[in-house]
Amino acid sequence: xxxxxACRERNIKQIKLITTNDNIHALAFYQKRGYxxxxxxxxxxxxxxxxxxxxxxxxxxxxxxxxxxLLVKELQ
Length: 76
Prior knowledge:
The chain is of the alpha+beta class. It has helices at residues 2-9, 24-32, 44-51; strands at residues 14-20, 36-41, 68-74. The chain has a single domain (2-74), classed as Aminopeptidase, CATH 3.40.630. It is elongated and about 40 Å long. Keywords: Transferase. One of its GO terms (molecular function) is acyltransferase activity, transferring groups other than amino-acyl groups.
C-alpha cells in the first residue's frame, strides 16, 4: 500500500512487477490486491541462470522454476 501511495503522489498511473512461475504465494498476494497477469516470459529463468547459475531448477515447493510473469496494476 505504501508503494502504491507513493506512486499516486507522483502521478504514476501503473505499477508493474515480475515474479517467477513457482512463486504461488506472491501470485496470490498480488492478484488479491488488484494486480493482473499481463505477460508470460517463457524460459526467462534459463536466461537468468546464465548470469546467476545458483538459481535452482526446482523451488522449495517442487515446482520447476522456468518462466517469469509480469503483473500490472492500474492506479486510480
